[in-house]
Every structure is written in C-alpha cells, then in structure tokens.
Design goal:
Jelly Rolls, 5-stranded antiparallel β-sheet, 109 residues, mainly beta, homodimer, 3-stranded antiparallel β-sheet
Chain lengths: 109, 109
C-alpha cells in the first residue's frame, strides 16, 4: 500500500491502516479529513507512540495543558505511554496523512 | 527536526538523523542525493528494518536476486534481519527522503 494512496478514505471517518506489525512494534497510517478527537475524549495509551504528519497539519493537546501544539507537514512528536492527549483539529482543506509508530515495552504494559 | 528540512545535507554524502531511539526501536531519517551503496557492498543487518520513501525514489536490490525493486514516493518495504540488500540508485533529480524504522528483537540479535 502506498502511503499517499487515499482511496477508501473519506470525510465520514478517519482511516487506519497497519503497514507493519512486528514484535512489539506496529506502524500505522492514519488519514484524517478534518476530523478531531470527539469532544471531551482523550487518548490514554498503555504504550509509547511516535507520530509524524506527512501531509496536511494538525493540532494536538496534552491533558492539563492550555496550548495546542501545531504539527505542520514533517513535524513529529513522541507521546509517552499514559500521556493523555487529543487531536483538537486537522487540516480543513486537504487530507492529513499521519504515520504512527506504536512501541509496546514490558516497562509500560 | 522537520522531516522535510534538508539543511546540512549535500551531494557529497548521505545524511542520517535519528528521530527517535526508544527501547529496541530506532527511527531514522536518511537523505540521499543520488547516492547508492558502494559497488560490491551489501547491508547485512542483525535487526529488522522497515523503510519508506517519502520523497524521491530509489532502487533496491536483494542479494541473489536479479531484479531491482523500484521504490517510488510513498512505497515501503520490510527488510528482515540478515536479508542482504543494497541501494542500487536514488533519484538523480531531487533528494530522496527515507524514513527507516529499525527493530531489534531478542530473536535476531
């Protein structure tokens, strides 16, 4: 599957595709069409995640913080296990393509 | 560091930057300016690698194979440990930006 192939994605919901699953690592592509995390909801993962925006842009908020972090094309961020976060917004004009690397370790499961 | 920031890279050699090192996982950006693996040399890694071409393109050859695999923008490939391979060529006209995820596991070290 090509990273930039948007077929099968749409404005009704985000699309998640697993590109690799090996040992404790999962690499995932996410396509967002202006979606955000539902109001009041937070991701609270038991594993570490590294994520990069390949196309588009997004706003990320850490629980307890006031400032939304803007991730432009090419920006990446590390999300430690149990660091609650939510996606406040994604690009309204073009699809946002994310690449996420999920890392499960004995220390944080 | 932004993935698309090419500063510090040049035609004299490939540029390698570690974007994340966590547990058994290393995420690396590689910028190639038409470079290839030196004649007669092969990568023979003791760990698994997943690699994707984000910009540009490249030709990859597995040891013992005749056909060079073309990786266009957005194409990815999994390189198991000890699968000998070499980069036959990278884009001559624009920089090739790679993202590589190296996964070390007890099974293959």
């Amino acid at each position: 599957m090509n990273l930039f192939d948007l077929s099968g994605s749409g404005i009704d919901k985000e699309k998640f595709d697993t590109l690799l699953s090996k040992d404790n690592v999962t690499i995932e592509r996410i396509i967002s069409h202006a979606q955000s995390t539902p109001e009041g909801e937070w991701y609270d993962q038991t594993w570490d995640e590294w994520v990069i925006v390949i196309e588009g842009k997004a706003g990320l908020l850490f629980f307890g913080e006031e400032d939304v972090i803007t991730l432009n094309k090419g920006d990446s961020i590390f999300l430690p296990a149990h660091q609650k976060h939510r996606v406040e917004w994604t690009d309204l004009e073009e699809p946002t393509i994310w690449l996420a690397v999920h890392i499960r370790s004995e220390a944080n499961t």
